[in-house]
Amino acid sequence: MNKILLIIKREYLSRVKKKSFIIMTILGPVLMAGIMIVPIWLAMQKPDKQNIEVIDESFVFRGLIPEKKFIHFDYPEISFEKAQEGFYDTDYDAILYIPHNILEGGKALKLFYKKQLGIATEEYVGNTLSKMMNDVLLTKNNVDLNLIKDAEESSRFTVLTEELEATGKSKKTNTGLYMGIGFGAGILIYMFIFMYGVQVMRGVMEEKTSRIVEVILSSVKPFQLMMGKIIGVAFVGLTQFLLWVILTFTLYSVATVTILKNIDMKQIQQKEEVMKVGSALNYTDMKAIQQPNEVTKLWNDFKSVDIVSILLCFLFYFLAGYLLYSALFAAVGSAVDNEADTQQFMLPITIPLIFSFVIAQNVIQDPQSSMAFWFSIIPFTSPIIMMVRLPFGVPMWEVALSMGLLVIGFIFTTWLAARIYRTGILMYGKKVTWKELGKWLFYKT
Q1: What CA–CA distances, in Å, run from 33 to 28, 55, 190, 304?
Q2: Confidence of residue 378 (pLDDT cuts 50, 70, 90)
Q3: CA–CA separation, 445 vs 422, rounded Å?
Q4: Which of 207, 309, 391, 419 could form a disulfide with 178 if both were Cys (CB 3.0 to 4.6 A apart)?
């Protein structure tokens, strides 16, 4: 046991002292926090204002196209040809050309620009003019637009999802948020198993090819060396993961508090401005202003997630999944002399991981399906699939069954890998086949 601890210590310290480990430990949280924060920050930014010159030969839309904060429309009394000629001498970003026979199904609308317009601008112009055209055609056919608008308002509703527990209590849920958390956790498990499993394989290969392993095995047994290496790298991964969690949540909390504070201040200012108008405000407008924005809603929903349970389960599935696969990676590293020879043995190991990642995209659509259940308890796929399902709520007996089978799977793969490792680690200059590996399993010690 003392020898295994010495190997664990050596593997751990030799890796955590590397510059690459320190750099990735710092950059990882910055990147993960950025992935969560940058979309919120971008959503808060005001887009550049774009001036559009409208040449409306039909005179149907002239002066009627509603503006937005980032789009301004001008209607100069000039022809389309002159507008084109002097386009680059003006401050306009685009020319919107509406032909005279547009109501008769004439030429399509055209939007000419100097530089590529944003997708938001293009969609706004297209959708707005399509709606206006629809209203014009309905009016020509004596259809009451107010009646249609009232019907649209009356039929518009939002579906709110709540989980009804056996006790009769209900809990608000956010399916989109759960999908994001589950899929994100599955991707991290997938990355961690690959990243640290390959580290074990390469470490074994380096010791084998440099012949250092011959000296080491004079003092320790092959199984002790393999387990020390696997557990040592596991502690490296665990250390990096815990540091990532701490640093990520620190960065995310600071940035989120700052962003939400700015949002709340804007809401307060908006309410104060509206209150000044007073009598000009109706109940509907006031109710809309009092509604929390999407960022605040998402943050409130995130706080309702049992993040502690998810983190603890993530920790277990990360470690157990890594231990299961790293034993196989270690066996592959011991069986070959160079990395080029690993391909034939790596494929069967990586297929379940890749398959899990593919299946996860279907499981996230229906986390309670039979397929989701079975793949979340099979040891080779459960680390990813169960993490995808957990945010949606999984019965405790399923979680316990999945964890139990994963532990059994780890014990089996470790036994399997140890029998290959003890023979392969001292074998040089021979191309190993699957048939050869099968023989190694039954060699007597």
Answers
A1: 9, 46, 19, 20
A2: very high
A3: 9
A4: 391
pLDDT, tens only, 45-103: 556 678 888 888 888 778 888 887 778 888 888 888 888 888 888 888 888 888 887 77
The one-letter code for the residue type at 173 is: T
Distance CA 174, CA 166 (A): 20
Q: Give the pLDDT of residue 281.
A: 42
Whole-angstrom Cα distance, residue 259 to residue 267? Answer: 13
Residue 79 to residue 97: CA distance in whole angstroms: 10
In degrees and rounded to multiples of 5, residue 146 shows phi and psi of -60, -35
pTM of the model: 0.64
Tell me the two tokens of residue 13. 């310290």
3-class SS of residue 159 = coil
Question: Which run of H or of E encompasses 94?
Answer: strand 94-98
Q: Which helix (H) or strand (E) holds 211?
A: none
- CA-closest candidate to residue 328, choices 407, 232, 230: 230
Question: Cβ atoms within 10 A of the Cβ of 249, count?
Answer: 16
Q: Are 328 and 349 in contact (CB under 8 A)?
A: yes
Q: What are phi and psi of 54, to 5 degrees?
A: -100, 120
Contacts of 212 (CB under 8 A, 6+ apart): none
User: Domains of the chain, with CATH numbers?
Assistant: 2-39+175-440 (no CATH), 50-155 (3.40.190.10)
- Rounded CA-CA distance 442/445 in Å is 9
